[in-house]
């Protein structure tokens, strides 16, 4: 007879409840800690390889693909299910001689194959791992953000100002930049950092984990992957039908968050929603999440890149004598959208409006002062660079976000996993697409 760990897996392996059969085996006296057996404890912890760990991906067993009772091997970073004699985690511990695991749900540590719980009490590395999976925050701590931090590779970063990418070479950049944008609206960020969302809607839970990671002062590496959140979005059929446009995704996200949480809806309305009077036909007042600014169309034989002042674009809403609109209530966080794409065009990206918008960091609308805090910008990868038939293909949109660090008064540009400082005088030399302005005194 083959030893237990060499036996062939049951065909219905996903149906086996690896957990309940083993829970009883972990008796109270079967645990180790730095106090009870310091030699064994340290030899186990010394096998942990932080650089192999990445908790940004879907937590499914690498053998059974099941998402239940998943453990991460802290030596190689792979996920395995269960911990009893037939479980993939048990087999892995024997085959690979990797013995320290964390339960991805309870965040408890175990030694396998002995199936002994490891008490994490004051060990620094074990604390870092728990924090990397789900960072926690206090009200007082977040008042000091952003902080100067160091990742496990020794790289200095500011929390909240990190790379945000995905494992498909930033293919979902139009979503990633919006996640960063939302993470820089402080009251909304604070909701996700401070609210216990266990048992709440999955969209709220997944977004909360992402926000917590973006603002973590104890990152393993100074960028995060949004894969787990993107995997969750794939199941939303309504979202899959929408164009890959940050403004459309932002409005989808805001509307869905408002539906899923009453408290968040109140916060969004209080901080991000304005009111506008529409004077055409029957005069009425409506709420808005963003103001869309139309860019002027210049003659096609115009050689230089056309430019327009942001103040001129805002006259549509800001002009006392406007026959169409009157701004009735300005929000604390004002979202501006610059309308560049014509969805009806055969090639919306090639034929976009490339007018540059002139702005600086301060703006006054109806005697209200605003300071720019986030700026999503657009550029392209030309079809001629990626296709043998460029006339039949549209260009590909690339998205970056520029964010302001008010603690050190500097701007940073996030391009996928990389981040670099930006001179504020040159922020407008891009195709700005979405901006957030915060009221200032
Ligand atoms: Zn391993």
From TrEMBL:
Keyword Zinc applies: yes
Highest taxon in the source lineage: Eukaryota
Cellular component terms (Gene Ontology): nucleus
Alphabetical UniProt keywords: Metal-binding, Zinc, Zinc-finger
SUPFAM superfamilies referenced in this protein's UniProt entry, alphabetically: Cysteine proteinases, RING/U-box
Keyword field contains Ribonucleoprotein: no
Any Gene Ontology biological process: protein deubiquitination
MF terms (GO), sorted A to Z: cysteine-type deubiquitinase activity; zinc ion binding
Domain spans labelled USP: 162-440
Coiled-coil ranges from the UniProt annotation: none
PROSITE patterns found in the cross-reference section: USP_3
InterPro entries to which the protein is assigned, alphabetical: Papain-like_cys_pep_sf (IPR038765), Peptidase_C19_UCH (IPR001394), Ub_carboxyl-term_hydrolase (IPR050185), USP (IPR028889), Znf_RING/FYVE/PHD (IPR013083), Znf_UBP (IPR001607)
Protein name (record): USP domain-containing protein
Species this protein is from: Naumovozyma castellii
């Amino acid at each position: 007879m083959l030893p237990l760990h060499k036996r062939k897996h049951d065909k219905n392996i996903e149906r086996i409840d690896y957990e309940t059969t083993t829970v009883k085996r972990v008796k109270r006296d079967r645990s180790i800690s730095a106090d009870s057996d310091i030699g064994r404890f340290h030899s186990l912890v010394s096998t942990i390889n932080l650089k192999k760990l990445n908790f940004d991906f879907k937590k499914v067993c690498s053998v059974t693909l099941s998402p239940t009772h998943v453990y991460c091997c802290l030596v190689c970073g792979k996920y395995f299910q269960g911990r009893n004699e037939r479980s993939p985690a048990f087999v892995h511990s024997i085959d690979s001689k990797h013995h320290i695991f964390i339960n991805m749900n309870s965040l408890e540590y175990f030694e396998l194959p002995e199936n002994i719980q490891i008490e994490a009490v004051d060990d620094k590395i074990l604390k870092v791992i728990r924090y990397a999976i789900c960072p926690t925050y206090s009200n007082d701590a977040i008042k000091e953000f952003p902080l100067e931090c160091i990742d496990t590779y020794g790289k200095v970063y500011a929390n909240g100002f990190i790379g945000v990418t995905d494992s498909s070479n930033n293919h979902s950049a139009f979503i990633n930049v919006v996640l960063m944008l939302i993470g820089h609206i402080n009251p909304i960020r604070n909701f996700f950092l401070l609210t216990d969302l266990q048992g709440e809607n999955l969209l709220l839970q997944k977004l909360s984990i992402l926000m917590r990671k973006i603002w973590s002062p104890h990152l393993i590496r100074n960028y995060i992957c949004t894969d787990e959140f993107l995997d969750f979005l794939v199941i939303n059929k309504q979202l899959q039908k929408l164009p890959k446009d940050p403004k459309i995704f932002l409005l989808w996200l805001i509307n869905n968050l408002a539906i899923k949480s009453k408290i968040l809806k109140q916060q969004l309305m209080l901080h991000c929603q304005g009111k506008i009077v529409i004077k055409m036909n029957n005069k009425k007042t409506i709420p808005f999440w963003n103001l869309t600014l139309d860019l002027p169309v210049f003659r096609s034989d115009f050689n230089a890149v056309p430019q327009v002042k942001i103040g001129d674009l805002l006259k549509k809403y800001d002009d006392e004598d406007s026959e169409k609109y009157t701004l009735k209530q300005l929000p604390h966080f004002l979202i501006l959208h610059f309308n560049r794409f014509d969805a009806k065009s055969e090639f919306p990206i090639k034929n976009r409006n490339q007018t540059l918008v002139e702005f600086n960091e301060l703006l006054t609308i109806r005697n209200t002062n605003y300071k720019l805090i986030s700026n999503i910008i657009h550029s392209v990868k030309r079809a001629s660079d990626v296709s043998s038939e460029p006339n039949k293909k549209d260009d590909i949109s690339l998205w970056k976000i520029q964010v302001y660090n008010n603690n050190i008064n500097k701007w940073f540009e996030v391009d996928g996993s990389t981040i670099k400082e930006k001179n504020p005088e040159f922020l407008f030399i891009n195709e700005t697409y979405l901006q957030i302005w915060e009221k200032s005194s």
